[in-house]
Amino acid sequence: MSKILQSYRKRDEYADLFSTNQRFKVYTERHLDQIAQIQRLPEEQRFAMHVVANVLPFRVNQYVIDELIDWTNIPGDPIFQLTFPQPGMLEQADFDRMADTLKSGTDKIEIKRVAKLIRDKLNPHPAGQKNLNVPTVNNEELPGMQHKYRETVLFFPSQGQTCHSYCSFCFRWAQFIGDKELRISSNETVHLHQYLRSHKDVSDLLVTGGDPMVMKTKHMAQYLLPLLDKEFEHVQNIRIGTKAVSFWPQRFVTDEDADELLDLIKRLVKAGKHVAIMTHFNHWREMETPMAVEAIRRLRATGAVLRSQSPLIKNINDDPDVWGKMWRMQTRLGIIPYYMFIERDTGAKHYFEVPLARAWEIYRDAVKQVSGLSRTVRGPSMSATQGKVEVQGITEINGEKVFVLRFIQGRNPDWVQRPFFAKYDEKATWLGDLEPAFGEKKFFFEE
Ligand SMILES: *Cc1c(COP(=O)(O)O)cnc(C)c1O
Ligand code: SF4
User: Using alpha carbons only, what angle is made at residue 365 by residues 364 and 371, rounded to the nearest 5 degrees?
Assistant: First the structure.
């Protein structure tokens, strides 16, 4: 056993430490009524969950049910809102349509047809993800990758396209409904390496999903270990996006190949790569369990850097105190706050969206509460077709109330950091809702 492994606790020692030391059951729409806590809810509420879960993805595991949700606070509990289908997630007409379909006792094919009709209206691939950023090798499209910003390639390994539980607001929801047409993923190790080999201006690889941490370590190693080769020297930074620290921290502690996974990360770090684990927490409650704290401790012990990115979501975390406390906890645990995102224009957006003006207020009121060590976090940002746009503030210029905005990333790198202004609009929730300030006809990036 390598030195690094000796510095972690031995896996069998955890049996005494945690009661959650097994592979826990996962529930989907079909198994909803088997969950003991759900059985206690009124029939009408349960039916509403089935209605929504027939349209939008639903998957939750026993760890989330037992350790994260406060069942004395239903439906208001933030983790319940985060993982269980809520009636408001569908527009009333769509809800009624699916409810009638289910009540009529019709066959599965008809249920699927109605589900598809509703889904098609929900903008399944926002920001041109499916068509705009697909890279090519020898004129052949590589569907499991996206290359939008010069220095960073996104890779969607095919074994990492699910998650340990699903977030109700997920912007990648289309990947989880089993519609192959909509899926972006790749098992083409060769293509990934071929692409990186021929793009020396790429410094960052971002492995994402779904959740790549649902993959077995041996698959992760297949993608990442070859990057230690001299020809991939330019790929300096390897980011892995994951919500497993929240939904299944066992992945890094007691799972069969947890030690191997940490060893793999350690190897990459030792060879000189910057490995960033991009964690995703929506609420500080997700960091309170001993298992999550231990997962964070073990990940840090590999030499990887932990950062956090998370969307601002109504009904879950639209409260500055929740963010303030979350960032303080993260900083103490060794996670660097990195992004606050605006909920994307897809799926059940109307249920989760927070207007840009309110988002900025929440960000500001939260940032005011924390020390400089947590102020590394970028303000409310939109991943739009043109780039990542941050709301930097609301102010008045020559008597006109405006949003101050900037590109953090741009489809054109020259757009980055140029401040620009939009007319203040209390209700706007996305870049597309905004109009240029000062009577101008277009934003500079539209010219
Ligand atoms: C956010 C994002 C990145 C990474 O941007 P950073 O500013 O480097 O964190 C890369 N590609 C896409 C498509 C993104 O949305
Ligand atoms: S962890 Fe990410 S990809 Fe998975 S369901 Fe949540 S938001 Fe979607």
Answer: 85
